[in-house]
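Appendix B, example 12.
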Amino acid sequence: MAATIADVANLAGCSITTVSRAFSVPEKVRPQTRERILQAAETLRYSPNAIARAMVHQRNHNLAFVVDPWQYPIMDAFYAEIAGAVQLEAEQRGYCVYTTASDRRELFMKKRVDGVILAGRADEGLLSDLRGQGIPAVQINDRPVSDDVPSITTDHYQGACQALEHLIAQGHTRVGLVTDRRLARLTDSRRAYEDVLHRHGLPFHPAYICPVEPHIETARQAVDRMLAQSDAPTALFCMNDCLAVGAMKAAVRRGLRVPDELAIIGYDGSSLCRATEPELSSVRVDGSGMGRRGAHMLIDLIEGRLLSESRVVMQPELTLRGTT
């Protein structure tokens, strides 16, 4: 027979009213009494509704997954992979996740979230708000912005080097770089680009570097202008798969054969890679792994556990397909 609130009151040595108040308005019950009631409820396996349990623990088991405004409400394939992994890990540990944009902070602060995953760029104003309310955060897929925010990112410099080294090994001496102007990895990819060219004694052409907004159509237009040059690149490295798809469209509309006349490598290894023909070569970033580990780290922080590491750097891997 299931325990009742009266059983909890009897074991805790207090009134039913006090037990009810401990679940509904815990701040009005002395901490020692509240702890005694909680211990009695656990001993008897008394299970009030989820909202009441949350009040006792001062948690509501809600997490926020926060993306850049341009990713909201429709995320690209890579961030959708991260979000899906966050959702699964959170559900396994009894938490709900909802997604919002960093410029909608008023909305999710009212939701009384227990913690926040910052996917991509972190907004300093948002971080300040979170600190002010004592809400823990974990940053995913961008370089750390603060020593007090744990992060999971990828070695984008090495990922870019892998792609560029492969293209040069194939005999390409005119290699273009198409990158998302909004991402911190722009710095990593530019540094890798210059370093690899230097190692192989190849000239640096500023006209071969193309920072664009992260959309297929803007990438197509920018790459089309690059390919209009008399000494246009014969290979392109694109710092996400969305940009690479735009580059493929530009090549096709110019009548260029991929990879015979233009080799292309993307970045992220998202589901877009198998949606193109030929299929897209890409540097694979473990988005699912980042999502799972990020959610795990955040929930550990919420529940008062010490993190074994607060800076995780994952290694990317070049996956070759039909565009190289």
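The two ends are 67 Å apart (CA to CA). Residues 50-56 have pLDDT under 50 and may be disordered.
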